[in-house]
Predict the 3D structure of the following.
Amino acid sequence: MADAPHPTTAPQAGPGRRLAAPAAPAHRPPAPNPYDELPYDSHPFSQTHPARLATVATLFDLAPAPVETCRVLELGCAAGGNIATIGEMFPGAEIVGVDLSGRQIADGQRVVRAAGLTNVSLRHASITDIDAGYGTFDYIVCHGVFSWVPDPVRRKILAVCSANLKPSGVAYVSYNTYPGWHMRGMLRDMMRFHADRFGDSKQKVEQARALIDFLASSTKNDTGPYGTLLRQELESLRHQADHYLYHEHLEEVNDPLYFHQFVDMARTHNLRYLGEARLQTMVTTNFAPDVRKAIATVATDQIQTEQYLDFVRNRMFRETLLVHPSASPNWVIRPDAVRTLHVSTTKKPADDAVDLRSTAAQAQYSSATGMTLTTTNPVLKAAMRVLGRAWPGTVPFGELDRGIDDLLGRPPDNGQQLSVALLNTYLSSNLIELTTVPVAKVGVSEKPVALATARARLEADQSGVASRRHELVRTNDLDRRLLPLLDGTRDRDAVLDRLVQLGVVGELNIHKDNKRLTDPVAIRAALAGALDQALERYAASCLLKA
């Protein structure tokens, strides 16, 4: 799998990394499966969650299947990190994942078994093997595969999305796009030219990074377009993990295409464009009026509008949703469409001092990504306060509207102002999230219970876990020892006792003043505060369940 926008952790550049000539013959036989040789980190991607797909379909006036009882198929599921937690959260759903890497499937199956999930099936198979025997699905997800496989497999992906998708189903396919990938493709060609002279994946990645460092140093004084663009791309690549760099840039196949070409391919498989998983990318209101007017003049339909937007943005990655031709999306979203949804904010706002009722008093809110919203709208300010108190959980639209009426002391208006305010904020920023399924706010109970999939992944030495919000939560050394203990059988003191035992035997290293602690009393004192902080962090990250 590959995902351009997904953050990863890369090794830092070191002074000893230099360009080198291969010490062995250049063209060694490739590994049977490069994903067996260097597995791709298997993580959740929130934009692929069936609730996200259902939300987009709902806003476009379609009637998607309830997520709680749906069937989901993921093509290229790696070790199941993107779908296992969906199975845990929705025991009435059936989740199927397919991947060609036997190693990754085996890793995922161990987690599924350890988590006790009977509704999740990970299968070692080729996408080309999928037939009518798999049945039909409400949601089909293919993330980070389409651009990285040969043309026959790409066509099979679309064939599966057509033949195995239920009439009201939604398919998600991500892929690299032009024009943005022209520059990135040039760098890929450079890295492959050099790295292909080396034998194994570790050498290839090391030398690809060495070439990046060399190019950055060689063009540091080039202030022209080439040098500027090159340094921007190189800086991005420096922060990517080895597995990402290898599979995204050094694999034999990586074929971007223009959006309109993808839509044409989908049409040949009797599929229709619905929209994008990140709905905000379809909005033109963030552009200057003259840009919007020009696009509206030359674009005669939604497909052409999207293509011109790609030209303007220099877009390099898309996450496109497809449906059957019988589905007729209404791309003019009605504010009333949000009334059936659940609402949350992406970050708990600290706004208790804000004057909610004044139309002159400004309030500013910031998301985790740094996007800010400034408003004087009393309804929106009150909504953010209600959502902040419910964070990280969601609030049903009707309950949110009643909470706003209580705060503002006004008679109900049947949610008219609220629906408009929420929709506008949702489409113009990432501070409001809408979803078809609720997410409960769960605090730290007497005997905390962490997600079974999170516990199983960490016990299997897999990094990163999925939350109930389907977000990646990165873990540290304490998390890897603590989370597996939270199975509902231990209270805080019992958990602390076990952590102290691990500290005494050296399985958990506790330091003070740069010295490892070995005395049980000192370890307990050091861990007590850290344990409470960690438990609160798990609650805020939606890693705990009731």
Observations:
- The CA atoms of residues 463 and 475 lie 7 Å apart.
- The longest strand covers residues 165-176.
- DSSP finds 19 helices and 16 strands in the chain.
